[in-house]
Write a structure and sequence with these properties.
By secondary structure, this protein is mainly β. It has two domains: 101 residues, Roll (SH3 type barrels), CATH 2.30.30; 206 residues, no CATH class. Helix content is 13%, strand content 35%. The chain has five helices and 23 strands. Strands 8, 14, 15, 18, 19, 22 and 23 form a seven-stranded mixed beta sheet that branches. Strands 9, 10, 11, 12, 16, 17 and 21 form a seven-stranded antiparallel beta sheet that branches. The longest helix is centred in the C-terminal third of the chain and has 14 residues.
């Protein structure tokens, strides 16, 4: 019986046989794609990796027998498209010029596809940014047992929670400026509206007047509003007493930085230190913890409490916070009283 002549191999080919990555067969496709088919945007990128040598030959034959039948010379870092996942020591690839051939698998490096960043700014409609569950730039999370709504637009993040003290409604508000310019805030311009057939505005309460005239001991006793979302069937409809519909939301996300935490710590500490419920201590707390008007510089943040008039039985509300030439809207809901 005649002896079959074995093919001749080059030294790089023999070396590649021992260094072939075992994972390649699991990551490359089995079928050879069409030359005209564009690579998927989410697919990993394959590059030529050739430490110690300036370039790598791409040959016409899988065995890379000598003399080499060079189709093209691939530079280090050059991007290629795998056309096969053969478990041998070479892989068929196509370069950017459309030429196809074989390279040793040891010279291929897989670069994982970059994760597409989640848009971090809510969309605007006529200068209004509305918090809506699951939308870009909108988050909600638990903070010290309280659900917080967070909304980011043009680099500015505003976070709010709403509390019913039984006397006034209190909103804890944090504003973080990651934009390029300073922004001015004026809490007296914040607007809280009851939504519904009998809805009405709940007017801002001057903290200095509250501190002077406080007569109720339940200032910090509270129930907490839950985020509520305006129904998506009317995404462009204006929020009004007759057009807003709500659904409660209880699924917190964890992607937002908590800018309210520092204020909550200060509030809890003030309550602990108050001891006996005396009016003078409550007045001091109001002055110390109120959100002050002023300027928030880039890379700075502020937080504090803002008080509003309380309706008889607050349920569905919208808090509107003007920031420069924008208005940020936060729909909030209290559990209906039986």
């Amino acid at each position: 019986m005649p002896i079959k002549k074995l093919p001749k191999f080059s030294f790089p080919t023999i070396l590649a046989l021992f260094l072939l990555p075992s994972s390649f067969a699991q990551t490359a496709g089995q079928a050879e794609p069409s030359a005209a088919a564009p690579a998927a945007s989410t697919a990993p990128v394959w590059r030529i990796n050739c430490p110690g040598v300036p370039n790598v030959p791409m040959t016409a034959d899988a065995e890379q027998s000598l003399p080499l039948q060079v189709v093209a010379t691939l530079k280090c870092g050059e991007e290629v498209t795998p056309l096969s996942s053969a478990e041998g020591y070479t892989v068929k690839v196509r370069n950017a010029d459309g030429k196809a051939g074989f390279v040793a698998a040891m010279y291929l490096k897989k670069i994982p596809a970059a994760k597409r960043p989640r848009p971090n700014s809510v969309s605007l409609a006529h200068g209004v940014a509305r918090w809506q569950e699951g939308e870009p730039g909108c988050d909600q999370f638990m903070s010290n047992g309280t659900l917080v709504e967070s909304l980011t637009v043009n680099g500015v993040t505003v976070q709010v929670s709403l509390h019913d003290t039984g006397w006034k409604l209190r909103s804890n508000v944090a504003i973080a400026n990651a934009g390029a310019e300073a922004i001015h805030i004026e809490p007296s311009q914040f607007i809280l509206d009851e939504i519904g057939t009998n809805g009405r505005p709940l007017f801002y309460q001057d903290p200095e007047q509250l501190a002077r005239n406080v007569t109720h001991q339940a200032l910090w006793t509270e129930s907490t509003a839950r985020p509520a979302e305006i129904a998506s069937s009317q995404p462009s409809a204006p929020v009004s007493a007759t057009s807003a519909r709500y659904k409660s939301s209880f699924v917190p996300s964890a992607s937002a930085t908590n800018y309210l935490l520092q204020h909550q710590y200060a509030e809890d500490d003030a309550v602990r230190k108050q001891g006996k419920q005396v009016l003078v201590n409550t007045a001091l707390q109001i002055r110390a913890l109120a959100l002050k008007p002023g300027t928030v510089d880039p890379n700075d943040q502020v937080s504090g409490a803002v008080w509003f008039e309380r309706g008889k039985n607050p349920q569905q509300l919208v808090l509107r916070i003007p920031i420069q030439d924008l208005t940020l809207e936060f729909p909030l809901s209290f559990k209906q009283q039986k």
